[in-house]
TrEMBL record:
Stated family: Belongs to the AccD/PCCB family.
Protein name, entry field: Acetyl-coenzyme A carboxylase carboxyl transferase subunit beta
Record-listed E.C. numbers: 2.1.3.15
HAMAP family (alphabetical): AcetylCoA_CT_beta
Amino acid sequence: MVWFKREKEGITTSTKDKKETPEGLWHKCPKCKTVVTAEDHAKNFYVCDRCSNHDRIGSEEYFQIFFDEGKYKEFDAKLSSGDPLKFTDTKKYTDRIKATQAKTGLTDAIRCAKGDIDGQPTVIAAMDFAFIGGSMGSVVGEKIARAIDQAIKAKCAFMIISKSGGARMMEAGLSLMQLAKTSGKLTQLADAGLPYISFLTDPTTGGVTASFAMLGDINIAEPGALIGFAGPRVVKETIGRDLPDGFQTSEFVLEHGFLDYIVERQNLKAEVSKSIRLFMS
């Protein structure tokens, strides 16, 4: 009845004058559909407090989680891909790189930084899926190599946060060369007696899984992350059989001996800190 009273009083709002709710104020869980404020979702480390679904997050969010007070020093931030193969599909590779850089604010699919984790100097190389699916090209391989050099120079622990669809097809063989390059640099890290922690997030697939993602002194993952070489659809079509429930999730991979443990995001810093302290002691 209040609506009718308001209309009689001449208090009405036309459609064109109605204000839209600003975007980004609310978050809806893609799994259980629970709606919470974006602020509360961020405070809970982008994890649903009802079903524990871990949303994909980028390098900046991981840096804020791991580094003390969110402080770090990034290096090689301006390193960007060239186009030695002159690759062209629906658009030039160089045009796609520029468009993705403008859209994401990133220069490539990985960022490298040095900071402290509970007072322990650590170098982290964190991949960003938003940049061409976190694909591994020459820049990714080069930045990982340089990050390892930084860790050796500082005599500190090194961690890679993997989040990738695999090798970058636009760089063909140059991309595949990064598998050997990063693996070789990790051998130098091991020779220096320094720990390498491999942290696998959703998704970690293709050439990344076939190289540095599975070479950690400790391999850890987030709950429910897709981890594998070929995707489930490709595997199913290749073998011609239905796949087990939970195939290629981090829980499935842990059960089959390819991971050391799975850790909830709110416990990440404490668990990684404990591992670094163990190795460095």
